[in-house]
Amino acid sequence: MSETGYDDGAEERPTSRRRRPTRRKSNRGLLIIAGAALAVVLVVVVVAVVALGGGDGKKSQAAAAARVSPKVYVNTPANSLVDKLNQRSKDKRPLNKSEVFGGDAKAVSHGAYHFTLVGSELSDCASATWGEELQNDLRKFGCTQVARGAYVTQDKKYLGQFVAMNLDQLQGAEQIVRDLDPNSSAGFVSPLSAAGTENFGSGFSAAYSQSFGHYVVISWVERAGGAPPQTMNELLDASIAIERADDFVWERLVLVGG
Residue 212: which residues within 8 A CB-CB, separation 6 or more? Predict the structure, then answer.
């Protein structure tokens, strides 16, 4: 499913403290329900195949974990508030882990969702992703880094992944968010495994992406255990909390004179 949002009749996603454009309200409630039902069937089928497949169980599980993708994927148009970051040539300093996942990014919240960072990593683009087409485009558009952070809520009921990709320019970032749509079959980011998040992505999950200049930012969330949510509002609200880890973008914007 390539576009979704709040369920019909609910409020639109609120503007963040940094005045991001609001996400558009979706009128596709029936499609969301149908997509969720299909995703549950697919998960059951996959589990059955794995159970009957035999072979090296640990190796199969590791391979499957590296190649998971969200059941729901939403991309918001590029954020025009950060146009001065459209070219990496104006923002040359590489990201570092403490910059992305230090400070306020260690604990992120929105409404009833309170997440704590349980693991983080800064990797090269090939080792943090899967899919030949996606990896070809990452090379084509000068991807140099992928920052990944794993989060767990205080009540252990929700898991999240924050991802930031460092591309050469906005044009490349916009192609990558198209590649990340599971409907493209190009590939996706491998979730970072950390304490309490080892099976992230194996069930029902939702990912929300956006281009911030030459960066691609993804907030990817699920219920612990991968059960489908009662409504998509649930995961959408959780994703807003994970998205709070994007402070580094706004700090970079200040450094380039934005």
Answer: 78, 79, 82, 85, 173, 246, 249
